[in-house]
């Protein structure tokens, strides 16, 4: 350990970098994830040559909730990602202001640290959509209600709709809208994801009332695949959907 090699006690290191002995102990025992300032200060005091400060990326990933890390790993292995959402805009498409408003509306409320971790984790997941790659392929279907709900207020929603229009023109992304005036809606059971992985298998994922579930049983996955196909057929085609989003933007 770098501290022991330097001949410093926890209290001495804490004094040198501006943290308490308890904070140093919590970091060393894995009870608390260190912040960037902690790692940079410890690296300098212990003359670690960047070995400690370089751990920041790993620390950031470790701070994310486990279910988020698991989902991000699956998304990284996917060749196609499909999602249906009927309440809010899909997380992979959310602007920072919009997703912060989504997490901020949870009841009971997240702690400030938990909120920041979830915001950072979702933004990190969004890196998979960068507009320069052809894989994975993305298919998103949103219920019209998700596009009209003023999450975060009018201006936050406007910027969110503008982002949907930008992403909707990417080569590997299709965004569809299921209008409220449709008599048939196979998605009334709630939102879900389908991820087709590189090795050929498909898994489902959903999260309801803060309870997330990975679906791998073949029969259940087949049901979700069938349901998603029906939802897509009920929704507007991609080009008409973008025109619909432009219409909603003009009315917002």
TrEMBL record:
GO terms for molecular function: DNA binding. Residues 2-41 form the HTH cro/C1-type domain. PROSITE patterns: HTH_CROC1. Pfam families: DUF5753, HTH_31. Coiled coil: none annotated. Gene3D superfamilies: lambda repressor-like DNA-binding domains (1.10.260.40). This is Helix-turn-helix domain-containing protein.
């Amino acid at each position: 350990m770098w501290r022991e090699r330097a001949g410093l006690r926890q209290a001495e290191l804490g004094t040198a970098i501006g943290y308490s002995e308890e904070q140093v102990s919590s970091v060393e025992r894995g009870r608390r994830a260190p912040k960037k300032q902690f790692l940079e200060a410890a690296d300098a005091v212990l003359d670690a040559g960047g070995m400690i400060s370089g751990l920041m990326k790993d620390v950031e990933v470790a701070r994310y909730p486990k279910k988020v890390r698991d989902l991000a790993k699956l998304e990284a292995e996917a060749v196609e990602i499909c999602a249906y959402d009927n309440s809010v805009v899909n997380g992979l498409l959310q602007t920072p202001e919009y997703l912060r408003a989504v997490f901020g509306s949870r009841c009971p409320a997240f702690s400030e640290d938990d909120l920041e971790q979830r915001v950072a984790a979702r933004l990190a997941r969004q890196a998979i959509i960068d507009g320069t790659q052809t894989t994975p392929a993305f298919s998103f279907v949103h219920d019209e209600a998700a596009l009209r709900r003023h999450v975060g207020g009018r201006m936050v929603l406007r910027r969110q709709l503008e982002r949907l229009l930008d992403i909707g023109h990417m080569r590997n992304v299709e965004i569809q809208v299921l209008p409220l005036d449709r008599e048939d809606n196979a998605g009334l059971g709630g939102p879900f994801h389908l991820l087709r992985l590189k090795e050929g298998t498909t898994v489902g994922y959903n999260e309801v009332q803060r309870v997330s579930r990975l679906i791998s049983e073949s029969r259940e996955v087949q049901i979700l695949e069938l349901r998603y196909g029906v939802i897509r057929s009920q929704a507007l085609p991609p080009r008409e959907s973008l025109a619909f989003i432009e219409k909603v933007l003009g009315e917002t």
